[in-house]
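Here comes an entry:

___
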Amino acid sequence: MMRRRTTLLTGCTALALALGATACGGGPVSAGGGDKALSGQTVTVAGVWSGSEQKNFQKVLDAFTEKTGAKTQFVSTGDNVSTVVGSKIEGGNAPDVVMVPQVGVLKQFAKKGWLTPLSPAARRTVTADYAPVWKTYGSVDGALYGLYFKAAHKSTVWYSPDALTQAGVKPPKSYDELLKAGHTVSDSGLAAFSVAGQDGWTLTDWFENVYLSQAGPEKYDALAAHRLKWTDPTVVRALTTLGRLFQDKQLVAGGSKEALSTDFPGSVEKVFGPKPEAGMVYEGDFVAGVAHDQYGRSIGKDADFFPFPAVDGGKAPVVSGGDAAVVLKDGKNAKAGMKLLEYLATPEAAAVWAKAGGFLSPNRKLDLASYGDDVTRATARSLVGAGDSVRFDMSDQAPAAFGGTKGTGEWKLLQDFLRDPSDPKGTAAKLESAAAKAYQD
């Protein structure tokens, strides 16, 4: 969600050393071909990024300037992209390009008539170099508006190699093996999992991985669009499966009470901080940034990951999130903004941030050698290799009132479920009631 983007993806700083910002590749691209064709023009870009993420994206913008001559200006919107961008449009000061962190917001912008469809050149690149699923998530009513430049891999379970070695367990391949391994870790003296229950979005990610693997992609898509009700037996089954972990005090560090007072950074600290309390923490690839930057963990040595395991014989899930670049109709320099999108679509642009760290690209043409370490290369390989089986974060596809608001909707109801997972059917009914209202409004 938008809130999570600014508060924790800023922790996705370099997994290894920042290696400079010189663009690689060198073949001619749509964005001017290096002939300074846009000299004298300025492209304004708005997005949620701040801190290290903003600095690394600026390296990409600087490479665009070097190639085309266009100057750029980045405006950090904070949490609420739609409100900030809406107010700028109303004030006659619309940015040219917006980096949108949610499918739901992209759809909202398109429905309001704010967006310009991608140029033929950008469409050709997306068709050729991206899995079709990214085109689907960037489209509204058949028109392609969004170019997914930055992605997240949300099907990674991070662990302390020392903790698993001490317990004598190997990374599990199934959910049942995951719980079994967790009990073995617990028997060795550490809790199995650190759960960030204070941040409701982490619980939606837990649910989405279980649901995608157990119910399959078609049901996942239907539930994400609310064509399937949350009272469906597949939802109850997924909640029941998740509840097996949540209700087990041996598996969750400090039990549900402590989990509900642990935020995302705190959950990483419990595994990779100076006084470890758990052996594993589930969340996206951005866990590595916090483990490395905050606690000095060497990624691949002191901190590693295994894929979220398959549930009940299903396929191992690959849930993603991402930031899509869109061009606003009302921007003062929308044509130059579209040239920026054409550049962002190239592996050359992606390589700039990949070298700096804290970044994954859905672009299949990006050389994996561009990433600074083996673990990031592995997560990128998993994301790109999943092709059309990737599914976008379900709560990011929902109306914010249901899937993205603290203290209400899915976030609040899954926190209640973590507190007491004894009634999956009742929780499903409450989720359906909240979803029905949000999708109707």
Observations:
- The first strand starts at residue 42 and ends at 47.
- Residues 51-68 form the longest helix (18 residues).
- DSSP finds 21 helices and 13 strands in the chain.
